[in-house]
Specification:
Strand content: 5-15%
Largest sheet: 3 strands, antiparallel
Helix content: 55-70%
Distance between the termini: 16 Å
Length: 105
């Protein structure tokens, strides 16, 4: 993990980021925001609902994003919510994104 601009993560921070990435939909949100600095919540929902392994409607995914997943990512300090727009927030986002790109064990 690069520590040049953000410093090392404490064990507590690392645990928090791993919990934040524990749900596949949150990992997808991080991947989408890796490609774009900002995106509308409905676009995120469509991206997730369009995955073959997801058996939910876009509306249901958007509801879960709104009430659960996006607030958790915002609380982690990695994104901010502005109405319907979701924006990544550095340096927290950069750290979480780096963990998200690592291969799993």
């Amino acid at each position: 993990m690069s520590t040049e601009t953000t410093g090392p993560l404490s064990p507590g921070q690392l645990d928090h980021y791993h919990r934040t990435l524990s749900h596949r939909w949150r990992r997808i949100v991080v991947s989408v925001l890796d490609r774009r600095r900002a995106v509308r919540r409905g676009e995120l929902a469509a991206e997730i609902a369009g995955r073959p392994e997801v058996d939910c409607s876009v509306d249901r995914v958007e509801l879960a994003l709104h009430h659960c997943h996006l607030p958790m990512l915002a609380d982690a300090g990695v994104l901010e919510l502005d109405g319907e727009t979701v924006r990544r927030r550095d340096p927290g986002f950069a750290r979480l994104s780096e963990l998200n790109r690592r291969p799993t064990l």
